[in-house]
Amino acid sequence: MATEAHGADDGGLVFHPMDQFIVKPLFGEGAVGVFTLTNVTLWMALTVLAIIALLVMGTSGRATIPTRMQSVAELLYEFVRKMVEDVAGKDALVFFPYIMTLFLFILFANFLGLLPMAFTTTSHIAVTAVMAVMVFLTVTILGFVKNGPAFLSLFWVSSAPLALRPILAVIELISYFVRPVSHSIRLAGNMMAGHAVIKVFAGFSQVAMIAPLSILAVSAMYGLEVLVSFIQAYVFTILTCVYLKDALHPHH
Amino acid sequence: MEGDIAQLGQFIGAGLAGIGSGAAAIGVGHVAGNFLAGALRNPSAAAGQTATLFIGIAFAEALGIFSFLIALLLMFAV
Amino acid sequence: MASETHDAAGQAASTPGLPQLDFSTFGNQIFWLLVTLVVIYFVLSRIALPRIAAVMAERQGAITNDLAAAEDLKVKAEQAELAYLKALADARAEAQTIVAKAKAEIKAELDAATAKADAEIAARAAEGEQKIEEIRANAMDSVKEVAKDAAAEIVAVMGGKADAKTVSAAVNARMKG
């Protein structure tokens, strides 16, 4: 690993910005099998618990005048529901639980990943790619089931001059298949970059002279990361809605 | 610290790929700035377009993230 | 390449290369991700979302009901105000009639009293005039007698003889003229 080439023994700065992303078994050492309990399992379980705490325990009062927890739960509910309705249309509300699941998982995984010593599950391309491919498959299958071959008109830009249409079709096709890639890498890359940058700044605090500056920088980056955590969850969800709209109403 | 010419190439390449992040920053700034200019001209229409703003920022940023990824790949994976 | 540097650095604890690209952990991550998503999906679609939807619908219903009740109360208040205004107007009208009646009664009484007083005054005046008339008549008679006597005396003094009849006739004629 390139950063480790510095080594701790030659007295220089020691950066391991990527070590926080290593998947390792919770108990003991050894290879990571498919069913091994790993830190991924732990933090995903915590994500589930946090979601249950907020959306199930928080609303258990069923109060007409909501408690604080219930207000937050209702806020999230309204937020996502309105997004689905506004962007993808009323007939996309069937997919509301699905989109809500993605949104809440990403949001809580991002926020939990910001805790010190935490493992950020959404910083892994394996995780985000699965979600992006799920969205991609859903949208593609739904598009063909709802519209039949007419779904292909998504790639045939009827408003462009006839000569340009084949070229545009190729571009549209490519951009369609790049969607899951950009969709997943955006989220994972943002998370990874933010955490790595924080780690790098934290590494600078080993030098006493610039330690205050590095702590300041870590604090600033942390604030930015809180924002980015939410925005990336929002962007992932809204792009899902946009893709869903394409599947439901391909004629743009 | 010993190295070889391939590692040199990796680091230089990663540094060059880092420029892409700056380019993405320009793109994001363009999107946000133009949104703000439009929003100040017609504030009543701005609220309905925040979703579009975020989508635009996301698209601009995705390409920056690609260059960041290439930098990471050069640094750690090649 | 990465593994070479890795070996050179002698850090045994690290996985080769970028942890995100360590394909040996992909199966594990994907498995647990799917478990997580399925659990979240079921928790949301079975418990959380219907509950939140129900609570919000209930709140909407409560708000609608309260608004309707408020509307009812407002209508009632308006009706009460109308009734109050009507009662007020009625009372005013009644008071008006009572005042008018009282005024009329007083006026009638007053008129009667005035008429009575007028009549009395007229009677008194008539009586007074009659008395004056009488007095005047008496005075005339007295004047006649005095004139007859005076005439007779004058005639007697002037040496004539005058009988009472002629004198009184002459005096009467003179007095009439």
TrEMBL record, chain B:
Q: What is the purpose of this protein?
A: F(1)F(0) ATP synthase produces ATP from ADP in the presence of a proton or sodium gradient. F-type ATPases consist of two structural domains, F(1) containing the extramembraneous catalytic core and F(0) containing the membrane proton channel, linked together by a central stalk and a peripheral stalk. During catalysis, ATP synthesis in the catalytic domain of F(1) is coupled via a rotary mechanism of the central stalk subunits to proton translocation.
Q: Where is this site: Reversibly protonated during proton transport?
A: 61
Q: How does it sit in the membrane?
A: Multi-pass membrane protein
- What is the name of the protein in this document? ATP synthase subunit c
Which GO terms of the cellular component aspect does the record hold?
Answer: plasma membrane; proton-transporting ATP synthase complex; proton-transporting two-sector ATPase complex, proton-transporting domain
**Taxon lineage:** Bacteria, Pseudomonadati, Pseudomonadota, Alphaproteobacteria, Rhodobacterales
Localized where? Cell membrane; Membrane
Mind telling me which InterPro entries this protein's record contains? ATP_synth_F0_csu, ATP_synth_F0_csu_sf, ATPase_proteolipid_c-like_dom, F/V-ATP_Csub_sf
Organism source for this protein? Roseovarius tolerans
Which sequence ranges form a coiled-coil region, renumbered to this chain?
none
